[in-house]
Design brief:
alpha+beta, globular
Length: 82
């Protein structure tokens, strides 16, 4: 599931480059609901550890230039977001 979420998020960012300039050190947050509504993810998005659906209001946090390839899912985000 982690690979699917990160791939869907990468595709979303690629298709919205005007809104998400890829500058090292920036952090972006995209709602799961946005990825579902635009067809990048299917509903429900399941937590791979609990097999429960994530709330669609949760965010996927993307850290540009980060060495990790796992995008954390959070219930709130204080950085640039959509």
């Amino acid at each position: 599931m982690t690979a699917i979420i990160s791939s869907a998020t990468d595709l979303y960012l690629d298709s919205h480059q005007d809104s998400y300039p890829m500058k090292n050190g920036d952090t972006y947050c995209v709602k799961i609901e946005t990825l579902i509504n635009e067809g990048f993810l299917a509903d429900p998005v399941l937590n791979p550890f609990t097999n429960e659906p994530y709330p669609v209001t949760n965010y996927i946090e993307i850290r540009i230039g980060s060495s990790d390839n796992i995008y954390p899912i959070t219930s709130s985000c204080t950085e640039i977001r959509n």
